[in-house]
Amino acid sequence: MPEIIADTSPLQYLFQVELLNLLQVLYGHITIPEAVSEELAQGRARSLRVPDPASFSWMQIRHISGPDMLPATPGLGRGERAVLDLALKTPDSLVLLDDALARRHAKLAGVAFTGTLGVLLKAKQSGFLDAVTPVLDQLEVLRFRLDPTTRAAVLRLAGESAD
Fold it and tell me: What are the backbone angles phi and psi of residue 115, rounded to the nearest 5°?
């Protein structure tokens, strides 16, 4: 199984909809760069409901050493840069990213990725989630960016589409 490297957003949203355990069920353990752990700590300091990776035995916080593998990429946050850099240093890894720009850079760099929606689909297809629709509804309340076309595609893939 590839090493799973998570960015802040999938951790935050899965935690907020009380489905963070899906990561352990589907992937065993995940790796989080220090920058992502720091972003989560900043969120907790601002009273946001985000997980503390140190309280989950199946999450490993990793320090990234050596030179950056990622060329200068304006618009990416520290966590996204760290996730992509670690992925480039970890052959055959899979990154969990939601940010469109970060996903574009992952694709250009040949890094395999999925995101919160991909985790939900995999959980449904694996029998660990009964329905995706109510989770998408919760995510939208939490201001997860989900355009109608993407929502329809996810529901179609989950076998929950009306058409």
Answer: -145, -165
Please compute the mean of the pLDDT values over residues 3-10 and round it to a whole number.
96
| 3-state secondary structure (DSSP) of residue 100 | helix
User: Angle 78-89/100-109 helices, nearest 10 degrees?
Assistant: 20
Rounded (to 5) percent helix, strand, coil in the chain: 50, 10, 40
* C-alpha to C-alpha distance for 16 and 43, rounded to whole angstroms: 13
Read off the pLDDT of each residue in 79-105 and give the average, rounded to a whole number: 93
- pLDDT for res 23: 97
Q: What CA–CA distances, in Å, run from 117 to 15, 113, 127? A: 14, 11, 15
CA–CA dist 101, 99 (Å, integer): 6
Q: What are phi and psi of 113, to 5 degrees?
A: -150, 160
**pLDDT one-digit tens code per residue, 10-54:** 999 999 999 999 999 999 999 999 999 999 999 999 999 999 999
- 142 token code pair: 């939490």
